[in-house]
Each structure stands twice: as C-alpha cells, then as structure tokens.
Amino acid sequence: MSQPVRDYAVFRTAARRRPPRAALILGSGLSGLGDVLEDAVELPFACVPGLDASSVPGHRGVLMLGTWANVPVLAFAGRLHFYEGHAWDRVVRPVHVAHELGASILIATNAAGGIRADLSPGDLMALHGHLDCTQPGWWRATLASNAPSPPTPLPRWGEGINAAPYSTRLLTILQQLGLPTGVYAQLTGPCYETPAEIRAIRICGADAVGMSTGREIATGFELGMECAAISCITNKAAGLGSGSINHEEVLETGRRVRDRLIGVLTAMLARV
C-alpha cells in the first residue's frame, strides 16, 4: 500500500530524499501498474501545481514516488487529455513536473488501436516515431516528408536525423525484450476515428493510433530527457476489426496485458 499525502511540498521533499531516475506515464487501463512501486507515496493530481483531477475512467489521477526494480521512479497513474478540455500546456505539465523533480528518463504508455496488420489486441509495440495529428496542417508536412524528392525535408518524429525524440538506447532494450516497433499517430479525440480517417493516417505511415503520448514525448525531448514509449494495442482500429470500438474494451485489454507490461517495464528499468 502506498502512503497518501495531500501536500505537494511534502511530496517534493520525498523526491529530494529519493531522487527519481525515471518517470512513467500510465495510460488508459494501465494506472494499476503503479501498485508495483515499493515504499511509495502518492499525491492526487489536483494537489500538484498546474494539474487537475482526471475525468476519464481508467485513469486514477495520482502521482506516485517509489522504487521499481531497485530504481527510484515517479509514476503518473493516469494522464490528462486535450479532449477533457485541458489546454496543451496542462496536458504536458506532468512531463515538466517529472523533469523538475529530477527524472532524466521518460517512459510513456498508452492504449492504442492497431492499424498494421500484424498488430492484434493484447500486443505491445515500442514507438520509434510518431505523427502529431493534433497540429494544424500536420498532414501537409507528413506527405511532403514521404514524397520521393521533397523540396524541404520535413521528417516525422523519429525518422529524421537529429529529429528523433525516442532514445535509441531505450528502443534497443525494448526490441531485445521482444517488442515490435512502429509509428504512433496522436489525434485529439474524444471520439474514435472513422474507417476513412484510419485509411488516411495509414497512408501517412501510422501503425497504431491513439489520443496521447506524442506531445508528451516531444516535451520530454525538448527538456533533454531520454524518452521511450510503449503502445498497448487494445483493439483493431476502426474498419479493421469486427464490431464497434468502446472504452470498456480498451480498459479490459489493458487489464489483460497488465502482467506482461509489468514484466517488460521491470526488465527495462533494471537495465537503465
């Protein structure tokens, strides 16, 4: 059991006594992974300057500090989303908090719809790049970067020289642990994409799609953090599977892969 606190100053003092090396952002249905932390203290998001309580089911909305695989770790059990009505600076505020508290490594997780044919519900995918579809005109830059001879190279995150926010070292560890790699597309949500939208972003190079992570990773990279991200494929993207997509399915798949993801993160943290 973690020790609850309500004062950010108390939490910050605990972080100074036990400086975190890595920060984890735990996505939809994955908040419970924070229970793995040993000797943990936890603080509600609403008690952290610049953060708010999460309103999405499957996101506990607490910041935790403890030990995982003998590594001091911060864990954001849940995240804030743009579609909840938060401004982008608030959505990425957890990354700034992690950096301010001393974390040099950022590992984000998310629930994602699988687009690539070999990705099925329950699979884990390490990100080597992402498409930030939340930016105005994102598709213009993406299609230009995919053209045979673009007049001005505009690489996707993770595919250009000196433009990759994803750590080669951390990605190599995840590959050694058996994870396939791919490109993730971040959209704003809250509704799931239409089959036509999925066809469009697949043409642009996306292997999986979700409503988070890209902006968080970009922020961590800008702050000088070593970044990695893992998508939990919770469903086939719209038009690629049978039946409709719903949040309950996303949460259930997240619970189903919990033990495997814990194993991956434990092995990863033991190597950082």
Give an overview of the whole structure.
- This protein has nine helices and ten strands.
- It has 272 residues and is of the alpha/beta class.
- The chain has one domain: Nucleoside phosphorylase domain (Rossmann fold, 3-Layer(aba) Sandwich), CATH 3.40.50.
- Strands 6-9-8-7-10 form a five-stranded mixed beta barrel.
- Strand 4 and strand 5 form a beta hairpin.
- The two termini are 25 Å apart.
Spell out the blueprint of helices and strands:
Blueprint: E1 3-4, H1 8-17, E2 22-26, E3 38-44, E4 62-68, E5 71-77, H2 88-91, H3 93-100, E6 105-114, E7 124-132, H4 138-146, H5 168-176, E8 181-186, H6 195-203, E9 208-210, H7 214-222, E10 226-236, H8 247-256, H9 258-271
Parallel strand pairs: 1-3, 2-5, 2-6, 6-10, 7-8, 8-9
Antiparallel strand pairs: 3-4, 4-5, 6-9, 7-10
What is the compact description of this entry?
This protein is α/β, with parallel strands linked by helices.
